[in-house]
């Protein structure tokens, strides 16, 4: 795996933004390990019999990213975009599965969001719907929850990706957790 030099990812993203498709292919080996970590983070809280594996989730996210008009500005933004794409992929799979087989009664709570297991497609869909509602009220809080819960990013990484202070991330995270907990408790 190639070694990532400081600024190399940002430089490749700049080239990609300018229309150089080779830049995306050169970029992937530099961030592949981090993307696999993200995919593993997502999948560890999925149901045990999930049909996607980390590699497949990374590849699906790559395909969606390559076909997207969104070109990240820097490494942190790239990881945030990849995190969102992985969330969308898993939600799409859950919706498809829920449409063919309804499972009942499983709900999630956000008591300790870092350790919350997603026990079924219904849990993921409930969280996705609540997160969409939160994002419509406060887009920044929605992004913070998505990056932390789905992407496994730390407060400093979220701060860098969004260009806001760490204190703002912490305040918004605390507020968003309370709001999501209330929303998810209502659907329980």
What keyword list fits this structure?
single chain, 188 residues, mainly alpha, 8 helices
Describe the structure.
This protein has helices at 8-17, 21-44, 54-66, 75-100, 121-137, 139-150, 155-162, 166-187. The chain has one domain (8-187). The termini are far apart. Helix 2 packs antiparallel against helix 3 (54-66) and helix 5 packs antiparallel against helix 6 (139-150). With 188 residues, it is mostly helical.
Quick synopsis:
This protein is mostly helical and 188 residues long.
The major sheet is characterized as:
none
The number of helices is 8
Terminal CA distance: 45 Å
Determine the structural class based on helices, strands and strand pairing.
mainly alpha
- Rg, Å, rounded: 17 Å
- The portion of residues assigned to helices is over 70%
- What low-confidence regions span 5 or more consecutive residues with pLDDT below 50? 102-118
For the residues shown, what is the average pLDDT? 78
Can you lay out the helices and strands and say which pair or pack?
Elements: H1 8-17, H2 21-44, H3 54-66, H4 75-100, H5 121-137, H6 139-150, H7 155-162, H8 166-187
Helix pairs in contact: 1-2, 2-3, 2-4, 3-4, 4-5, 4-7, 5-6, 5-8, 6-8, 7-8
